[in-house]
Amino acid sequence: MPMTYLKTAPGQPPQTAADVADTVQVMLARLRKGGAQVALEYARSLDGWQGEITVTRSQIAAATARVPQALKDDIDWAHDNISRFAEAQRATAQDMQIEVRPGLIAGQRQIPLGAAGCYVPGGRYSHIASALMSIATARVAGVADITACSPPCAGAGIPDAMLYAMDLAGATRILTIGGVQGIAALAFGLFGAPPADILVGPGNAYVAEAKRQLFGPIGIDMFAGPTDSLILADDTADAETVAADLVGQAEHGANSPVWLATTDPALAEAVLDRIPALITDLPEPNRSAAATAWADLGEVVLCDTPEDMAGFADQKAPEHLHVQARDLDWWRTRLRAYGSLFLGEKTTVAFGDKAAGPNHVLPTSGAARYTGGLSVHKFLKTVTWQEVDDRALPDLARVTASLSRAERMEGHARTADIRLAQATPEAQAIPSAG
Prior knowledge:
Histidinol_DH_monofunct; oxidoreductase; Ald_DH/histidinol_DH; NAD
C-alpha cells in the first residue's frame, strides 16, 4: 500500500497510565467501603461542590425555566432525532424461535437491563449532546431505572441546559457528582440509586479507568480513550472544508489525533497551509487544545489510489471516518473498520456529535476493528431458551451422551442417558435420524 507522509505525528510523552490506575484503585476501594460519605468527601475536595448531590425536581424545574426557549427547541429537535434512530435500532432486536428439528424448539429473547448508570462529562465543555445520547438510548431500549451523573461546573452545579437535556431524555434521577466518585455512585448504588447493571458515557482518563476496573460484575459500553477522526478525500474535496473539519475535531483535546488521507497532492498542501490560521482563529482553551493535537498527533498521508486510502482507514479503525470523495456508495460498502461513517462534504462529524441521530459514544484508539458504538443493543440482553419433546429426544440424548463421553465428561453423559430412559416407549422406538 504505497503511502507518502506529508506530515507525521511525533507523538506525545508517555502517559502516566500506571499512576492513574493506582489512584483509581485506591479511590474505588475507599468508595466501596465508605459509600456515599466518601463520595461526598471527594465531591467536596476534588470538585469543590458544597451542595446536595441529588438534584431535586424543583431544581430541575427552575433550571428548565432559565433555559432560553430557542435552545430548548434545539435540544428537543436533537433528542427527537436520537430517539427516532434508537427506536429504529430497537426494532431490529427481535424475539424469535425456530424448530431446529422436529420436537427441538429454541429461541431468543431481548431483555432490557434493569438499571443503567449514564455518565455525562462536564468540565471544559458542557456536553448537552452526551446526555441525550446515553440517557435517551437507554430509555428507548426499555431500561427501567436510569441514573445520570455529571460533575458540577465551577461550583455552580450542573449547567441548566444539561439538566434540561438529562431530564428530557428520561433520567430517573440526576446526581451532581463526577470523576471516579461519580462512577462509583452509579456502580455501587449511592444516593438512592440502585446499583447499575451497565455504566455508559465518555469521560476523562480517571473515569475511563474506573469503568475499566469495575468491568466484569458490571457491564460497560466500551474502553474509551481520546476521540479521533480520519478524513478520506480526493480531488473533488474542498481544502477549506477539509481543514475546518480536522480543526473542529482537534479542539476536543490536546490528545485527540486527526488524520487526512488523500490521493490529491494539491489538496494535501492546501490543507496543510490552511490549518494553522484556522487554529489561531479559535477561542481559548480550544485554540491550545487543537494546536497541540495537530502538532503532536496530526497526520497527512498521500495515497496512490482510493483502495489505498480505504486500506489505510481499515488499519487506523478511527472513531469518526469522514469521506469527501466521489462514488460514496463504493466507500460505504468498502470501508469496514470505524465507529461511525460520515459520507459526503455536506456531512460533518459535528452533525453526528450533536444532533443527527446515530450515537456519538463510539470506539476509539483502534477499537473499531472489533466493536461498534453505544446503541440500544448495549442495554439489551439477548438470551436464549430451548425446549425438547419426544420427537427430538432420542437423537438429542444419544448425540449429547456421545460427545460428552468423547470429552471425558461422564456426568454430562449420564444426564442425557436419564432423559432417554424417561422417554416414552414410543419415543425410544423412533429410529435414529442418523
